[in-house]
Amino acid sequence: MKISRLEKDINGAEWMSAAIFVVGLLILSFIFVFANTNGVKTGIERGDMAPDFTSLAHLPGNDTSDWFSYRLYENLDFNWSGNHSEGVFTIIEFLDTDCPYCWETAHKLSSLDSQLTEYGVRDRVQFVIIVVELNIPGHQTSQEEMVAFQEKLSHPGCNGDSADCSTRPGNVHPGVYIDDRSTEIFQEYGPRGTPHYMILKPNGIVGWNGMTDSSDEIGIELANLICKDGGDNQLCAEVNG
Amino acid sequence: MNKMDWPLYVYIFIIFFGFFISSPLGSKIQFQRFNNDQSRIISGSIILAFGGFLVSTHTYFIHERLHEIGGTSGCSAFSVFDCGDVISNGDYNTDPIFGIPWGVLGMLSFAAMLFILIVLRNSPEDPKIGNWISVMLTIPALGMVPILWLIYVEFFELGVFCQYCTVAHIANLFLLISSYWVYDLHHSGLWNKTKNSD
């Protein structure tokens, strides 16, 4: 059956109203979604949301074989008010027990721990140390070696198999050691290497991405973050003059 | 589910109401606006597709909100429980070819269905109406492929269900059934070419 141009136009007009309705509905829906979300992306740059992970973890003092499941997001506060004078900040370090740079800077976290205790703000910070096994000859790590590195126990094989773990600089490391020998977390975060330091705000947003922290600024950056909105403690009194 | 999931109940009501109207059960209730089965099935399907569109939009909304907090912890924040584990899972929350969030694909599919259904309703005399009906039957039929895969993932890979996704899947299944009723009506020769539902 041949359809006249007029009939085609009439049919087209019927379709047009349906198309306008549906396209309008789509546009309104997308506007609604975009207007009510702000799409913070995950990553390790300042302002990004640190990616979640679940892995085996070890606390200092526990038995060498006592590893438990640890999930980062269960240790953050997504309802954090945004007021920096409250909440627990998270220091993350990626390290490799056979990496000589990690060995040399191993004192950093334990001295930071001591300073935080002195200033009375130790309860404002948690430490998460993610131990990786980089794909470098001589970098083989076991859970025993991780615990030995964490607690400075006697164990041969640290620092590229050249040193006993008990001789590493610094004291016992605070916080949890995460077993990431598979480097799954390391690849998800994507740091360039080890050591790599980061500070997360209480809600998991990256407040500082210090990379290797070669300028040794982690303490200053942490203090600036904790005391950004003031605080009734000795640290903030010094930081804010 | 708790009181914060009230939109889900609204979507479920709309979807089941639409399916009820388009089903043979709907013919037992006298709706004055529907002069015949064709009008009733198409109108019910429009309501059903609209409900599917809404729940897909909500799914996409959850997807975007979960991106704000970056991972699989959105459940408690939005009281959607396991939806966080499903929708924010980077391995499964987008289509594997183009990386489009499933919620957006659902929105586009239900919007396309809405478009075709409105055309059927407004232009039943269109000589190419058979093509539109075939397309309308094809969209939800194709949609069943990723839906079955996602159900497999929920069952065997993740071990959790997202109730919003499941409602969208049900809406698609209902639309497939109601589209078949329209298809069957057209092929049985009972298609009424006059606009009749206003």
Question: Can you walk through the features of this model?
Answer:
The complex is a heterodimer of chains A (241) and B (198). With 241 residues, chain A is of the alpha/beta class. Chain A is 34% helix and 18% strand. Chain A is built from eight helices and nine strands. Chain A is globular, with a radius of gyration of 26 Å. The N and C termini of chain A lie far apart (89 Å). In chain A, 38% of the residues are buried. The model of chain A has no long low-confidence stretch (mean pLDDT 87). Helix content of chain B is 69%, strand content 0%. In chain B, helix 1 (6-22) runs parallel beside helix 7, helix 2 (37-69) packs antiparallel against helix 5 and helix 6 runs antiparallel to helix 7 (163-187). Chains A and B meet through helix 1 of A and helix 2 and helix 5 of B.
Short structural summary:
By secondary structure, chain A is α/β, with parallel strands linked by helices.
Task: Give the SSE map.
The complex is a heterodimer of chains A (241) and B (198).
Chain A: H1 5-35, E1 54-58, E2 68-71, E3 89-95, H2 100-104, H3 107-119, E4 125-132, H4 143-151, E5 156-157, H5 158-161, E6 163-164, E7 176-180, H6 184-189, E8 196-200, E9 206-211, H7 218-226, H8 234-239
Parallel strand pairs in A: 3-4, 4-7
Antiparallel strand pairs in A: 1-2, 1-7, 3-8, 8-9
Chain B: H1 6-22, H2 37-69, H3 74-78, H4 83-87, H5 102-122, H6 129-158, H7 163-187
